[in-house]
Design brief:
By secondary structure, the protein is of the alpha/beta class. The chain contains ten helices and eleven strands. The chain has two domains: about 140 residues, Rossmann fold; about 140 residues, HUPs (Rossmann fold), CATH 3.40.50. Helix 1 packs across helix 6, helix 3 packs parallel to helix 4 and helix 8 crosses helix 9.
């Protein structure tokens, strides 16, 4: 079950060429190109995101080297392969030439995940664009993608392989999942920048937690009543949270709507809501309330990265965690806060 509310606000009103490693340092978005797959949809999304953040794009392809003990590669064959990859990237860069987005190309050698992460660190690239598998691999990110995400380097824009056959036409609706934590809310500023740039609607979504009680044997009326009260409480608090979130964005310069979803696994309910809202892109934080420091990607974020039918921009909170929660200035009547107790 879900409820939805909306408030409309008036929308806010370098040439591409192949280049070398020194030039690509100015880019902020890396597109991880696998020569065996069509990367055009990835490049389109990369340009759209780069435009919003005022940065360039670099196409990166890694020629994978084999470990020790593997058969030596003929130097001539290796050079031919390197030139073929370079030519392919140069062709793509020329095809996507635009006055609005600068594109560079870079060919690396080594283990793909390691090389991509090192490139991101050295060049201060903030967003890595990758494609998710199709067919039997549809719901599984690649080994390289998992390695990159596990490194914790930058934000990740995951583009489903099935969208590679479609022509990118921009974003009409930007979907932002919120679980009530300041970590989840850290994705909102980037979502707003995307929405402003592409004149999109911002869709905020909160899934209320399903009441879980210990139930052994027959369920009595008291248990049923308790679960019902908890469900009503969660819906009330969730709606209040979304209302306050919408109010806090009244001057954001973009149309804002909110959807409250109840009853079910938050991960699956979010994937369904993304489809029902006809979202064009999801912008979400890598972690929410749980925020386990030893996990590079939270359970909900990982599930949506794997299952969403539209691209997902997963952002990470940089620097020290800040108390920027939507309710940071809220006070409950009749409650004595620690600061108030000091006389």
């Amino acid at each position: 079950m879900s409820t939805r509310s909306a408030t409309a606000f008036p929308p806010h009103t370098g040439k591409s060429r192949p280049d070398d490693a020194r030039r690509t340092k100015a880019a902020g978005v890396i597109v991880c190109v696998d020569v065996g797959h069509d990367p055009r949809a990835m490049i389109g999304h990369a340009q759209a995101v780069a435009e919003a953040f005022g940065v360039g794009v670099v196409l990166v392809s890694v020629i994978e080297t084999h470990g020790t003990g593997a058969k030596a590669i003929d130097p001539l064959d290796w050079e031919i392969r390197r030139r073929e990859v370079s030519t392919h990237l140069a062709y793509l860069a020329k095809e996507f030439s635009s006055e609005d987005c600068e594109i560079g190309v870079l060919v690396l050698e080594g283990q793909p995940a390691d090389q991509i992460c090192n490139c991101a660190k050295k060049g201060h690239h903030d967003i890595l664009v990758m494609s998710r598998g199709s067919g039997e691999e549809r719901w599984r990110t690649s080994k390289v993608a998992r390695g990159v995400m596990a490194s914790g380097v930058g934000a990740v824009l995951m583009v489903p392989a099935e969208s590679t056959a479609k022509t990118f036409k921009g974003y009409n609706r930007v979907f932002v999942p919120l679980d009530g934590s300041s970590l989840a809310e850290s994705a909102i500023p980037k979502a707003i920048r995307l929405a402003r740039t592409h004149r999109s609607e911002l869709v905020l979504c909160h899934v209320t937690p399903e009441p879980v009680l210990t139930e052994i044997g027959p369920v009595d009326s008291e248990t049923v009543a308790l679960k019902d009260r908890i469900s009503q409480h969660n819906r009330r608090v969730g709606q209040c949270y979304l209302d306050r979130a919408k109010h806090s964005l009244k001057d954001a310069g973009v149309p804002v709507s909110a959807r409250l979803v109840t009853g079910g696994d938050a991960r699956r309910m979010l994937v369904e809501a993304i489809a029902e809202e006809i979202a064009d892109i999801v912008v979400m934080a890598s972690h929410g309330k749980s925020a386990h420091a030893d996990v590079a990607v939270g359970d909900v974020a990982g599930f949506i990265l794997d299952r969403s039918a539209v691209p997902v921009l997963m952002v990470r909170q940089t620097g020290k965690r800040k108390d920027n929660h939507i309710f940071r200035n809220a006070r409950s009547e009749g409650v004595r806060h620690p600061a108030d107790m000091v006389k």
